[in-house]
Each structure stands twice: as C-alpha cells, then as structure tokens.
Specification:
- The complex is a heterodimer of chains A (300) and B (288).
- Chain A starts with 5 loop residues before the first helix and ends in an 8-residue tail after the last helix.
- In chain A, α5 crosses α7, α8 packs antiparallel against α9 and α13 runs antiparallel to α14.
- Chain A is mainly alpha-helical and 300 residues long.
- Chain A has a two-stranded antiparallel ribbon.
- Chain A has a domain of 200 residues: MetI-like (MetI-like fold, Orthogonal Bundle), CATH 1.10.3720.10.
- Chain A is built from 14 helices and 2 strands, in the order αββααααααααααααα.
- Chain B has 288 residues and is mainly α.
- Chain B has one domain: MetI-like (MetI-like fold), CATH 1.10.3720.
- Chain B contains 14 helices and no strands.
- In chain B, α3 crosses α7 and α3 packs antiparallel against α10.
- The longest helix of chain B is centred in the N-terminal third of the chain and has 32 residues.
- Chain B is globular, with a radius of gyration of 26 Å.
- The chains are: A mainly alpha (300), B mainly alpha (288).
- Chains A and B meet through α1, α3, α4, α5 and α6 of A and α1, α3, α4, α5 and α8 of B.
Chain lengths: 300, 288
C-alpha cells in the first residue's frame, strides 16, 4: 500500500493485532491446545477409580487400544458407514439436481422440497425414521417387511438402517451443491456437444460429469466429513448399551462414550481422537491425490 | 418490408420426444419429492393419532380424529418452549460471535499490513484440518476448569471463531474493487470507517451467507451440547431435548413426534425465506 506513511503503517500493525486477537485467542485455547494436549494425554492411563492420579504408561495404552477388537470393529463400522452414505448420497443428490436443472413450471417448489432435508437436524431425522422403523408402528408390516427382529436391533441391518437415515438427511446438502455446480457450467460447451450430435446420455457422462468434477470433489470432501461426524442417530435410536452388539459403534460414538459416558476415560479418548484425526487426514489426502488429479478446472 | 412466408409447423404430437422427456422429468421430480415428503407427512399424521392407532393395519394415512392436544402437551410437559429458547440463545451468540471475529480477522488479512501475515494465515487455515470432534475431550476439561460446565459460556465460547468464516470473508473482501480502498484513504477514511462504511455494506451477501451457514451448524449441534449440559435442563437445546422427549415418552410416540414437528417447522419456514443466502453459504467452496 504505497499511500501509507510509516506512521500509518505502524498504526495498522496495532489495529491488525487488535482485530486478530479474539480469533487467535480462541483458536489457541479451543483448537491448538486441546489438539496437542491429546498427544500427552494419550500416554497416561486413567485410574480405575475417579480421583486417583493417572499413570504414565507410554505408548502401551495406544497400542493396546488400537489393536483391540472393539476398536477394529468400530473402525469397520465407521468405514462401512462412510462408504454407504457418501457415494449414495452424492449420486441421488446429483440425480435430483439433474432433474431440477431446468426452468419448468413448478420447479421452485421441487427445489425447495429437495433442499429441505438440509434443515432437519440429527435428532429430527432420527425420530422421524426411528418411528417409521419402529416394530410397534404399522408401516413396515404393511409394506411386507417383517419387523422382527426390529431393524435397529439387528447386527446386520442396524448400520444400513442408520446409514439410510443419514443419506436422507445428506440429500438436501448434496442436492444444493450439485445444482449450484450444474448451474455454473458454461452453456456454450454443452450446446456445442449437442450440436455435434452427441446424445443426452453421452453429453451427460462425457461432458457434464467431467466439467462437474470440482463440484463432485467438493461434495465428496463435505460428505466424508459429514459421515464421520454422524453419531446422533445412533445415540438416539440404539444407544450406548447396544451400539457394540449391533455393530454400529462408529468411531465418534466410541470417543463420545470415553468422554461423556458413565466411566470417563480421557486416556482412551485421546488415543481415539488422534486415530480419528489421522483417519480423516488420510481420507482427505487420498481424495486429493486420486480425485483432484482427475478434476477438470475449466479455464484455470 | 417483404413478407416472409413462414413454413407451417404442426404442433408436436404428445408422444414426441420433447413432450415425453418433459413428462419423464416431472415423473422423476415427483418420485424424488415423495421420498422426501412422505416421511415428514407421516410424522405429522402420526403426531395427531391416538397412540393405539399407530399400530393399526393398514397404517392410517390421514388423522381421522386429530389429537391436537399432543402439541400443547409436547410444548408444556416436553419443555419445548424452554429448549427452543435455549437453542435460540445458543445460536444467536454463536452466529453473532462468528460474524464479529470473522469480519475483524478477515479485514486484517485482506487490508492491513503486519509482520508474519502469511504465516499467521497458514496457521488459521490449519484450524480447518482439525475437526472439533478431535479436540472435544480436552475442551470439556477446559470448560469444566473454567467453571463453565452447564452454562451458555461453555456451550458457545469454543465456537466463537471459525477458520472457514475467516477464509470465506477474506475471499469476499479481496474481491472488492481495490480502487475503493484508495478512494477511501484519499477521502480521509481511517481503517475503521473503511470497514464499517464500505467493506461491510458491500460484502453483505458473503456475510449473510456465513450467517446462515453458522446458524444451521450451531442449531444442529449435537455432540457438544450433549457433553456440556447438566441434568437440570438449564441449557438443554432442542436437539438434546428431543432425545430426552423420545426416551421418556415411550408410550406416547405421538407427543415426541409433535415435539419433532415443533422443532422442524420453524426451520422449514426459514429455509423458504432465506433460500438464496443458504445456498450461497453452503456452496461457498464448491464452484469457485
């Protein structure tokens, strides 16, 4: 900024410090400190009785948790959940967006309906579907589905059932993102492809989807974060006592139980938190590596 | 002007490609809408049924004797009024706090010169790589040692700064025409007046988008409110309240469903009103 005199510049340092101070303070206390503290806490084992000091055990606690069958099962459930929710949620969102990406009569209403699940909270979604899946309620038998054992109390079906609820809730966001992506595509390229005689199906897969790849990439990242965060449905519909038995003890729920359950175990929670961080990191890097290479950025 | 003779075009028959495609599109749109609406519709119907009707075969698809009293029951015995109030307080504090910290920090990064600017910006971006869930254990300990357990400070303060918001607004501020900055300096505007008179009014769309985004994120919070609320409902939010309602009203599913509708309807209205801002906020990273 050539217009600034040295005095004005120094004044601007002070103002910058003042403006940045709240954010720096909050990030230091509530993001960086707890993040780093995890690595220390992970080395200490929580005493079996509350009130006693925790004991330094080094890496042995981490290795024993990370190799336990409970952790491996939790990892499997988390992975299956993410793999069910993200691709299906994005594909269905894309289908709805393609259908709604034309200015025809009544389209505004359809768009609002498709976006609407974005405002349903975890608790709302869980209760809506928990009721419909409830064996006492007459819907499933009417549809010819035998609700015994109840869907949400079956080691096979509980996870897909919860994933279906999460997909339904993710549909709104997925639709909004995909529609915005479709609307930002340059019309001339699509028009040129059509004039060249390409059929609608070919245009969609050979032109629209590649040009939409930045949006799809964004959707995958957002969807993965969303899926890793979901555990409210499981907490409300299945609960701590049964989560492991029904194979729905996803990683975040496991962490929640170590933090806020009946027997808080900060050491275990720290180990699991670091594991969650590493997993999300690996997922993000893999996505960057495998997806971004194929992403087509128009004119950039 | 010469009269151009137009070739006579017949109206396309109903089976023509174009009509059929339009029909197909409406069919797809309707199926999609049903998938979304049926669960919500059945929830409203079920909330108005007598509990014994819920297990009927075939299930009632229309409330023949609507039990309107389930709504006042959910409102009163279900404490929905208190939970809604708590959620509104929580959300208002977080949204206003995030707007304030994001506007100030984004302004500093966009318009002010100071040492270690790039380094600090990278540090701020790094917060995006650390999900809140990963820090939740220690944060609970911090909040407890500050004496903020079961208080609105504890519920909201950890969320008052957001790397996403700072990043979003910095982009918006940088995309304002640079001549504005020079003109305002020539006009004798200081930084603060430049911020309040020029930047904030011009970046209103981005600020509104951030507001809607952080509104949704904080309203729908589940993990943290569950951890910091005590058992006396002092700060219990709607989400946690619904969980309690569902757990305690086992023989009155209709009441817990009425509570769900009460929690859900205001947001649908907000969606219809703020659709544009919402979409801009949610797609902020996707297209550009």
């Amino acid at each position: 900024m050539t217009l600034l005199t040295p005095v004005a510049r120094r004044r601007s340092w002070g103002l910058a410090a003042l403006f940045l101070f709240p954010a720096i303070l909050l990030f230091a206390i509530f993001t960086f400190y707890p993040f780093l503290e995890n690595f220390k806490t992970a080395l200490y084992q929580t005493a079996p009785y509350p009130g006693l000091p925790s004991k330094y055990v080094g890496l042995s606690q981490a290795t024993s948790i990370l190799s336990s069958s409970a952790f491996l099962q939790s990892l499997t459930s988390t992975f299956l959940f993410v793999v069910m929710v993200v691709p299906l949620g994005l594909l269905l969102g894309l289908a709805l967006a393609v259908a709604a990406n034309k200015t025809i009569k009544g389209i505004a209403i359809f768009r609002i309906i498709f976006s609407s699940t974005v405002v349903t909270s975890v608790a709302v979604g869980a209760i809506i579907f928990g009721t419909l899946m409830n064996p006492i309620v007459g819907l499933l038998p009417w549809l010819g589905i035998n609700p015994n054992p109840p869907l949400l109390q079956s080691p096979t079906w509980a996870l897909p059932a919860v994933a279906a609820i999460a997909i339904w809730q993710f549909l709104g966001l997925s639709f909004i993102v995909m529609l915005a992506g479709l609307q930002a595509l340059p019309d001339d390229v699509l028009e040129a492809a059509r004039v060249d005689g390409a059929g609608a199906w070919t245009v969609f897969w050979r032109v629209t989807v590649p040009m939409l790849s930045p949006t799809i990439f964004f959707g995958v990242v957002v969807g993965t974060i969303y899926a890793f965060q979901s555990f409210g449905q499981i907490d409300i519909l299945i609960g701590q006592a049964n989560a492991q038995q029904f194979h729905v003890n996803v990683l975040l729920y496991y962490i929640y139980q170590s933090v806020g359950g009946t027997n808080p175990d900060p050491g275990q929670a720290a180990v699991l938190s670091i594991a969650l961080f590493v997993i999300i990191m690996v997922f993000t890097l893999l996505q960057l590596r495998f997806l971004e290479r194929r992403v087509h950025y128009a004119g950039r | 002007m010469p009269v151009v003779e137009r070739p006579q075009v017949d109206a396309p028959p109903w089976w023509s490609n174009k009509r059929l495609r339009l029909l197909l599109r409406y069919a797809l749109l309707s199926i999609g809408s049903l998938v979304i609406i049926i669960p919500i519709y059945l929830t409203i119907v079920n909330s108005l049924l007598i509990p014994s009707q819920l297990s009927q075969q075939p299930p009632p698809f229309f409330p023949t004797h609507p039990q309107w009293h389930t709504y006042p029951t959910a409102w009163n015995t279900g404490n929905m009024a208190l939970y809604l109030r708590n959620s509104i307080i929580q959300t208002a504090i977080i949204v206003l706090g995030q707007l304030a910290t994001s506007i100030l920090a984004a302004f500093a990064f966009a318009f002010l010169e100071f040492p270690f600017k790039r380094t600090l910006f990278v540090v701020f971006l790094a917060t995006l790589m650390i999900p809140f869930e990963v820090t939740v254990t220690q944060n609970l300990a911090t909040i407890t040692s500050l004496g903020w357990f079961n208080s609105f400070q504890g519920l909201t303060v950890p969320f008052l700064a957001t790397g996403f918001g700072i990043f979003l607004l910095r982009q918006a501020f940088l995309s304002l025409p640079p001549e504005l900055r020079e003109a305002s300096i020539l006009d004798g505007y200081g930084n603060v007046r430049f911020l309040t008179r020029v930047v904030i009014p011009l970046a209103r769309p981005a600020i509104a988008a951030l507001a809607v985004f952080s509104f949704l994120a904080s309203w729908n919070q589940y993990l943290w409110p569950l951890l910091v609320s005590g058992s006396n409902n002092k700060i219990t939010t709607v989400q946690i309240g619904l969980k309690q309602l569902a757990a305690t009203q086992l023989n009155q599913i209709n009441v817990s469903l009425a509570g769900t509708v009460i929690a859900f309807l205001p947001l649908i209205i907000l969606l219809v009103v703020f659709q544009k801002q919402l979409i801009r906020g949610l797609t902020a990273g996707s297209v550009k």
